[in-house]
Fold these 4 entries.
Entry 1:
Amino acid sequence: MPTTTKIRPRALIRASGGPRYAVALTVDALGTGLLRPFLLLYGVTVLRLSAPATGIAMTVGVVVGLVCMPAVGRWLDRGARSTVVAASMLVRVLGVALLLATPAGHVWLFATAALFLGIGNQAWPAAHAALVATVSHGRERDAALAGGRALRNAGLGVGALLATACLAGGTTALQALAAVTGLAYLAAAALAWSVHLHAHPTTAPAATPAEETGKDTDTGTGTGTGTDMGDGPAPRMRALLAANVIYVFCLNVPEIALPLVLVTQLHASPVWSAAIFVANTVLVVALQVPVTVLMSRFSRRTMLAFAGVVLAASYLGFLAATSLGHGWGAPAVAAVSVICTIGEIVYAGSATALVTVLAPAHVLGRTLARFELSTGFGLAVSPAAITALAPHGPTALWGSLAAATLLSASAVATEKEPGTQLSGHCHQARAGSVSS
């Protein structure tokens, strides 16, 4: 069976929603990169809030923002696509406007602004995945989702670098960054809305003879697509959703766990933390699509389980690296972080793709919303879990993460979803437009 072996950028852009949508993603990511890393700093320096109050307000905004996900899922299941993406960007415009209008010392207005920003940040991934799932199929879809992630990470990285360069301007510069972020979100929303993509998920096409002979959706190298699965029941995915909460800890390892370990345990220069974060971003941008393309030779579920094994191995590597102490410890942690990033790339390239092929068309939105709910919950609790485990020593932190991730990988590998049959090895011609 042919597999994806070559990337064609134009076909990849088409499979991702088209040129205008790609520009919208880039502008949105740039805007997010300008503000998101410095939102805490904005609350402390511009609004003169205490650091604990600012952090709590931001956390509440993220957690409460998760409550919107069921509504987002139902909206997507009514066929909306580009409209939901645009709405997720527009609600962040409102958040930025509130941020700029908040007087110094008003923590509740800041919390409300963080809530709107959180709603937009939580709604966007599910809306984007549903849009891509509507315009592409099978392994072409996997590559398109990977391309969107690489593009977004590039935009976030560039935006963060621009914002860092502007920080010398003090509070005025932070306010200007917030204003530019709002304008970027507004422009991105207009571009996304202009795509005018609407789906009719309840009218799935009949299966072809080739589709009738397919295997389970998450196995093999078939190009089955959840949007062609008719009116079957929504997949439960209990083990997958629970495992995903643990998997997403890897996304906060470069930003939270490693800086904490390097500075407080190894007493290394903060430059190491910055270098690891930059290397993580560069590797994701450069390798997300090629690695996802290579993974088309294997089952999505198998690759997701493999990602857990790689992540667990990297956590054990961090445990070994921290035992080296000051001197060799920091370079060893930096080297192991590359393995952790590879695990992150494999996870990101298989997780959402697996969910899209498990979901029948009429519940694609709700299924993606449930998955993003687990992602958001994992991202919300991981900083607290990491900072709670770290004071108890490297074994408590890295040993616990490794054990939990291996358990999650085992659950993913062994979970069976009754009633989800492959829509087949269809759309190979479409997949061939991305690869040959």
Note: Residues 209-432 form a domain with the Growth Hormone; Chain: A; fold (CATH 1.20.1250.20).
Entry 2:
Amino acid sequence: MQSLEALTREAASLADGPRRVIPILSAAETEVGRQMQICNACRYCEGFCAVFPAMTRRLEFGKADIHFLANLCHNCGACLHACQYAPPHEFGVNVPQAMAEVRGQTYLDYAWPPALGVLYQRNGLTLSLALAAALALFLVLAAAMKGSLWGAAPGDNFYSVFPHNLLVGMFAPVFLFAVLALGMGVRRFWRDITPATSGAPLNRPAAAEAADAVLRLKYLDGGHGDGCHNDDDAYTLARRRFHHLTFYGFMLCFAATTVATLYHYAFGWAAPYALPSLPKLLGVVGGISLMAGTAGLWRLNRRRHPLHGDLAQKPMDLGFIALLFLTSASGLALWLGRGTPALALLLCLHLGAVMALFATMPYGKFGHGIFRTAALLRHAVEKRLPNPIGLGAD
């Protein structure tokens, strides 16, 4: 049954004719709007994160406002543990959970192509690992047909197992599609939330502030520097630290691949590279960091308080964490297995994990970092302008 607010908006839209369409809120969006009205009257949590200062600039919450606020939320749980209206209070205010449900909806709504948005609902742990295993098995069969599945490759050369051009032909389309799909999705998201966040263009100071918030994970400190919550009322910086290990580990691995590509095409230096070459240093440090970060996030996710997020998204979260861990672990195993008969088998496992990671990237948890960065950019722009409702100071 539609809520009274949704019916009111629909009636207003019909009364105004075809010139103006008022988006109808979903049940999850309506719940965020209800809770934000309560929080706007209380404002106890105003210093916790970016959500609450942004909230105070609004008297009502349309679809674009709710999508913007939901993607500003870092799901740290600090506001839930501080809230006097949290369950079992009759108001039932649980901002982290309500925001998480809307974030999941935004990933679905802004998926590109739209028909593939349903993959967000099915991209769980089992599917992610099954896809990695299937791709690895395909590569194993291909290597076996060439007779190069078991036995040391000449000079530890990966390209004696799979030619360089074949690998590029397999991975480049998957990677480029992932970039395109994510780019198209966040472009639509940006276009929708910009009018709701003043409409002012992005500027250099705002971009610098948002970049600082992203790179430091500023809003996982609970607003006071002691951290947020995970499975109880205790403050912890563990989520922030493990996110840092995961993010920077991934970026170092990506940098290793980028440098190796430059070596290959610009200088004609073919892989594999040995220590202390730059690609290998970046890859080893990044791989260890990524393994440590994802192992920590897995443990925290399994222990997370059930009121902190949307339980329906947990399989997607765990699937993404597992693929990142498998990618880093198989990459390090491949390096340690050089010169052994298992080299080709380890290469197949690593390539299968990497391809599964990029194939699911546009429709998995990776997107939350992209959408959250866009929301932080708009928040940094909006906060530099006078408060449109003139209530209090920013």
Note: The chain is about 60% helix and 0% strand.
Entry 3:
Amino acid sequence: MYTALRLQRKLKTELRAGTAEITVVAPDPYMTYQPFLPEAAAGNISPRHVVVPLRRVLDKCRIVIGEADRIDHAHRTATVTTLASPEDGTGAIRLTYDELVIAPGSISRTLPVPGLADYAIGFKTVEEAIGLRNHVIEQMDIASSTRDPAVRDAALTFVVVGGGYAGVEALAELEDMARYTARYYHNIRPEDLKWILVEASDRILPEVGEEMGRYAIRELRSRNIDVRLETRLDSCENRIAVLSDGARFPTRTVVWTAGVKPAPLLAATDLPLNERGRIECTAQLRVAGTDHAWAGGDAAAVPDLTSREKGKECAPNAQHAVRQAKVLAENVAAAVRGGEPVEYRHSYAGSVASLGLHKGVAHVYGRKLKGYPAWFMHRAYHLSRVPTFNRKARVLAEWTLAGLFKREIVSLGSLEHPRAEFEIAAGGGPPGKGPAPQDT
């Protein structure tokens, strides 16, 4: 989205004259600002303000909502299955292009853990974030209503796997929200909630440095969160989380955030991939060994020209992706006009992470911050980065109102099955909801 947004500005003359066309193929009609997912899950931001509608911001582009099944760059064609494909029976469509920008991002990297596919939930989409919020509050409702101690214990036990940004921020924000929500239950105390963070390495949040990582662990443990380092999830079958250190936790909630891998689309192209499945790129963000193909973001293996370490690549994170988008647009525009592309070069500035309301850690330009200053920096940075003034204003307004009023503790799990009530009213009997994996 960032690349297309800048490209439609750079090629304004060509687009107006009809000598150029920009086509954007995406599976969803919006771009998700993923750093705000934890706050959306905690109810601090409305889910619709975490996403940016493509048709509004890319008004000079042709938007095609669908999945790219295959890219044949040798013949400059992309095979795309649209939402209409199963309806009209015509099958996938073939799009031709002159210049290709491929940036499908990444998906959750899973492992063959027994029960994982049946019971776990990821944390990469706004749907998962809101579904997880609804699920956590629903488990508190179950615990408040049941007379079975085993059911109550499992409902109030939450296991998060992965100590990176996604896992730590999701756990911290949800724990903050659940602890606040507990005050409105007559028979649930904050100390009844059991939160467990499982990390295979010997540290969490490696991007903020070892010292800030240790502080984050102390902060989480001070809130009665069980942080288990050098530990793996061996199984979650039958709603029992079995850890490599021998611990067993009956639980109805397993959140999987243990890394990402390149999108499957990359394997369906004739573009060169490295050993980790990412597209090999030059410093100009051109796909190595090809012409008229460009890549950026999580899916691209881009040389880090600012590193002294030979052969090091840019980390697959938002900090690089947003800046690569700018260079991608500049280089594609240059290619269209017969100019010379430029190299991507960005020195890593540091990282910020939220640990819940008014709590955070940061390591930016060599300076280390923690607590409220780090949390404030986290919010200020991401407010400056979320695209469009419209979204900035709405997010800021929501934060301001949240500071004046009480938190929202509403669960809208029924949104996931909007026809359920009508099916019962229509005489269809108990509807076959097909509950989400984490609720089975």
Note: The mean pLDDT is 90.
Entry 4:
Amino acid sequence: MTSTARPAGGGGPVDPQAHGAFDAHRPPSAELLADCVHCGFCLPSCPTYVLWGEEMDSPRGRIHLMSQVREGEPLTQEVAGHFDACLGCMGCVTACPSGVQYDELITATRAQVERNTSRPPAQRLLRSAIFAFFPYPRRLRALRGPLRLHQRSGLSRLLRKSGVLQRISPHLAAMESLAPPLGAAEPVPEVTRAAGPRRGTVGLLLGCVQREFFPGVNAATARVLAAEGFDVLAPASQGCCGALSAHNGREPEAARFARRLIDTFESAGVEHVVVNSAGCGSSMKEYAALLADDPAYAARAEAFEEKVRDVSEFLAEVEPVATRHPLEVSVAYHDACHLGHAQGIRSQPRQLLGAIPGLEVREVPDGSLCCGSAGIYNLLNPGTARELGDLKAANVQRTGAQLLVTANPGCLMQIHSSLERAGTPMPLAHTIEVLDASLRGRQPSDLGVPGATRSTGGSPTP
């Protein structure tokens, strides 16, 4: 799809001191804005442009709006709406031949929007409710009981089938449909000792949604790291990493969470901090920028950032010592945007999965396009997220795989919901759960795959 409009700018002189309608605290950089030459390579990678074909809802269109606001145009609700519509998937960063740092630009702009615009009351209420619960594991834990009861009662299936909740409130319907089936809690011990000779000590981020809604992922991560010879420290006192706050312009809140997490893992004395949630890892690798103006934490944030590793990244860096047992299953691997685009981690998960005997990795068509989760985007913009989720579900089904594998809780919830809605449910697992099953000699049925055997002939449906 091509655009009929081309924003002006990008080639003239820029005054880096001028910030127009943006306030003086970290406005989007004039130099970075000028890097965009409006070539259009970003357009096919942008989910909102793919859906709507609107120039101002493309990366280069949003950059044009940022430049206009820097030059004095007002930061209106309409302009802010184009920034809010961005999923922050960073697909454009991967696609850009000029190396435009759109990630830094949209992060700075969202903080400006959060400080300098006033959203409609319903939007403010929704955002307040989300941020009153999601970054707080204890509050999420309090929801587990009522949510499990709701799911077991059959009311969940009835609501989804009838569409009543969708008619009453699309936002509430999105929250209800995205909730994964909850099983028993699997708390991770504060200390998990290495199996066999000890090779080092790592910290494990437990997260918020991951900890309470996908506890099996954390348990599997601790087991795999221990099996590979590492002591695993998972401090019970750790809180939110601040990713949701940082990605939604809530800079002071994100900074508070970051400081506390740095304090926690500094006290633990670990060599690396291992993360199994793509969005969290992406944010934690940006702590140095987040806390650059804090004299007490700037240097500490840089040192902490150097220790952060996604679990697949970490395991790809060390020589494997644990035995991989066969898993006869075909898997469709979905690149979480904040793992593939934001962190550049693509080969490592495939390397881990490909080393499992009997396992076949299949690529998802148009795999680089966001599934629509994008942190809390699917709660704030359920219609757009639903369209993207439906596209992703259809492409996953085209692989003909028996199991979908990815590395982010939001993606797991989003794609699970989309597949259910399409009437084509399929088991899903985190990358580390698949590796854990192999190390423990489990069967594909333990990952929810009934009667799985690896396909030996033909190729995935194109």
Note: The CA atoms of residues 216 and 411 lie 16 Å apart.
